[in-house]
Amino acid sequence: MKKFKTVSIFYFSGTGNAQKIDSWFAEAASTRGIRSCISNIDLSDGYSSQNYMDSNMLLVFISPVHGFNYPKIMLNFIRRFPKGDNQVVLMNTRAGIRIAKTVLPGLTGITFLLSSLILINKGYRIVGQIPFDMPSNWISLHPALGKKSVEFIYSKNILLVKRYFESLYSGNLVFISFKDIIQDLLIAPVALAYYFVGRYFFAKSFYSNTHCNQCNICVEKCPVRAIKMVHDRPFWSLKCESCMRCMNNCPVRAIETTHGLWFILFPLTIALTSFFYNLLFGEVYLHWIIRFILFNILFMVLLILSYRLHHWLLGTKTINRLISFTSFTHYRFWGRYKAPSEYKKNVD
Description:
Alpha-Beta Plaits, globular
């Protein structure tokens, strides 16, 4: 690996985890006199920085993992990225959970595999694949981590960023992801299922409660313009990346997850899948994949239709409150997570 003189970092971040990593990486680079250019890909295409790109510039791509893959916004950015021959480091932030004095790691899945293939085909050389287990922000599925857990996870990752930068600066290849290669390959089917089905399911999992004051912050801050106002309430389209920026940044905690709707749709879809499977195929034995495809088709149709009905019902305050009580995210103990703008590192 040859020495690099500058670093160009391209990041996508929903609630600030990836942004933290790239800022720490840039700080580590500055201690070695290496200049860094940081580009937020959801604010601009980032290509303007390529006007001065040369072979001595290290390129870094970093984004959270969504469904064991880079989110579509980052994949599209990488697909459109111009050809070149630079060295590239791929990074991601995974859902880290603190247990006692350790951080339970997340999974990378096909994140690095797919993006590496795209970039290698463009002429780049991959010199690093580095996951970071930052505080999980997916509060649709679990409560937010407490302040002490967040600080503990931060302290671990700051040291890792510094260590990995120094290794890259010394000319070493840094493929931390290789130690997880077996489990990452095993969950590849799940990553594909999320990309083609799952992400649309989660896109229709958000709604606003009676606290919504139509401030439009969620609409304006959405990185993929997936939110629009319908009947004076935010409405999430299938373009949603589930980056959690809207829910975790809403100043009045008006955005919640439709847990109650999930509990209705799953058993209903299972029953309808069995009904239509028997109606269409009778006693004929077919592979489980047929039932799986039928389930997902029915589920998505029901989800889209019920989400519109759900959104319409939210217009009645009494019903809105009743729906809100069925969401875990409604309750204070569930919390919210956003990477703090200030953090005292206390790292030598």
